[in-house]
Design goal:
CATH class of the largest domain in chain A: Mainly Alpha
Number of strands of chain A: 0
Helix content of chain B: 40-55%
Strand content of chain B: 5-15%
Number of strands of chain B: 5
Number of helices of chain B: 19
CATH topology of the largest domain in chain A: Rna Polymerase Sigma Factor, Chain: A
Order of helices and strands of chain A: HHHHHHHHH
CATH superfamily of the largest domain in chain A: RNA polymerase sigma factor, region 2, helix turn helix motif
Order of helices and strands of chain B: HHHHHHHHHHHHHEHEHHHEHEHE
Radius of gyration of chain B: 45 Å
Strand content of chain A: under 5%
Distance between the termini of chain B: 112 Å
Number of helices of chain A: 9
Oligomer: heterodimer
Largest interface: A-B, 54 and 44 residues
Radius of gyration of chain A: 21 Å
Chain lengths: 228, 504
Amino acid sequence: MSLPPPSPDADSDQLDLADIAAGRTRRSGAAPAWSRLLARYQDRLFGVCLRMLGPSTRARQTAADLTQDAMVKIIQGLGTFDGSAKFSTWAFRVTMNVCLSHLRGEKLRKHASLDGESSDSVSAIRSFGTRPDNPGPDREPDGHSRVSHSEQQARVASALGQIDADQRSILVLRDVRGLDYDQIAQVLGVAVGTVKSRLFRARAALREALEAIDAQSTPPAPSQTPQP
Amino acid sequence: MNPLPAHLEADLLTLVEGGSLPADRAAAVADALAKDPALAGLVRAMQNDRADLASLPQVSAPADLLARVESVLERDALLGDPIAEPQGITHLPVSQIQPRGRTAWQVFRHSRWAAPVSMAAALAIIAGAILLVIGQRQSGPLSGAGLALNNPKPGVADKSGVPNSGTGVLEESAKSTDLTLADASTPPGSGTREPLGPGGGPATRSMDRGMRGGIAQNVLQGSFEDTAGDRDDRDTLLAAKPAPIAKEANPTASTAPAPAAGPAQPAPMIAAGAPVESAKDAAPAMSLDRAAELAVEGRLAFRVRSAAPERAQERLQAITNRFDWAGAPEAISPDEVAKLVARLNHGEGGRDEVRFAGLDANVPEANPAAERKDAAGAKSEAEAGPSETTKDRSLPPTVTTGTGSPTAPPAAVIVPPSPQAYVLTAPATSDRLGRLVHAIRSEPALGDVEFVELPRDPLVEAHQWLRRATPPALDPAQVVWWTLPVAQWSPRANLPVLVEPAKP
């Protein structure tokens, strides 16, 4: 099992931050320091936003918008970055706050609206992570062994989108972005012990969500109707 | 899933994430998993889920994401977003540079008419100045009357030698109407002031002194330059009551009277008839509380020894302007002096009389013949000793004594070098009086000041007379919007101020 090593380039971050602090906008024809800084993090921040949004038809566009907002806040809030944590940790924290604020707003809007999206959610879950020309997996009743790897990723991603946003955030930071407990604690602003207990419960919740998805995708057994 | 113990959760999480446990705890976890197959399946499933999550494909941000961020930052910077803008894009785009329009002055400067118009203006100014100088030389100095009426400095002679009373034409015309001045203790908007005078009635200053101002101006002129008309006026005044003035011809002949004998006579600050300097030295300093009591009774006066008496009214005016509760100094006119002298002498039967020191100051000089006669009478009186009235009464200072007999010739007046007298109005409280004294002492042109206690009789009458015509009384109880309780109203008093030249 190999986790993606999102090793932040701390040295480059420090150089760019020093350039920004010194007001040096360009260095020998290169891009501005803030642009270099954001370019180094834009994919990771966008990935966090996309995983936090979960499967939906407009997740990519919304994730781009949230990433844009997060990057603007990062640049505008550079003055508040005190260097007590790594810049990457601080950037993830800003991004996670933007995502959580958006999800809470979405949750309120869903509560306010009467129309459910259950059918859309199911279809989105099935299509998440798959190509448009690749229809949803035909699951066998005993299915796990024959599910392809991409389909399995799609199931996990779909289940991730169904659990609570706080649990989702801790799973994304730990498993998708590979942060350690201390960094997660700094990003979420909680203690390390809290991170551990929340992480175990988040894994349990993800497991229940996956089992629910499996139960929904399993065709019901044919009913034994008595012949007249 | 049943809730697991916290320590078991932590150990299972370590197991799921591939961490290592101490031997004892690893044995305990293995034992728990062996006993609970479902828990073991959960751990295995969590391990698979974690691997699935970690293997999710890495996504790439949209290509235009940075450009969008840059545009947002630039827009915020242009809109003046208070949030700190990024330091990397502090430059404004070229589209924001707008050419400034030329001002009228710039247009004029760059026009071909600038130089000719400037030259013409300069020539016009020079020609005007030349014409003004020539016109002044041909017409001579301006008339003294005009200057005297418009020069606000009191007592200062203009080029023609006419001193100024400090009241201009407009001011005099305004004073000729009934004006009621409201002080700070008056409710805003009422326009009236209801000080409680010694007589129990309101003592609001109602100005009707257009004529008096003019006469006062003439009298003040007399102290600087004796004109024929002024001499006539003074002669008239002196002839009206020659006896008291005649005794002033020789102040050195006046003897110090005995202290107040009757219970109604207060102990004066300065014994009547005694030289002012010696009386001042002998008299104790009057407390502010006592001065306030006397002010309520109308028996308080200020005596100021000024190094520049001609500026006294101006400086007093400045002081009263500083305090909104103080009324402007009002020069005492010769008409008022004459009335006062007549009242003071009324009923005295031509015997010794007392005059208020500050008020007789404006009495013009007497003619030399009267002075000589008065000197003779005074000499004889000095030889005979102080008169009976002088012994019995305690009288104010600076004072003059009249002739001992009604048949005495008109007396000459000895007026110390150009003293002046004014009347101020102010609340009769120790605080206000103290501030007035402090302000007067702070004025270099005024100098030292002291309280003078006036005798009860007949100066109460004098003060009643000094208290100008009063408007209809205001019933405080009817003023429902008045914020200051009636009990806290302070009575106002007319405070005569005698300004004497300081001794060199």
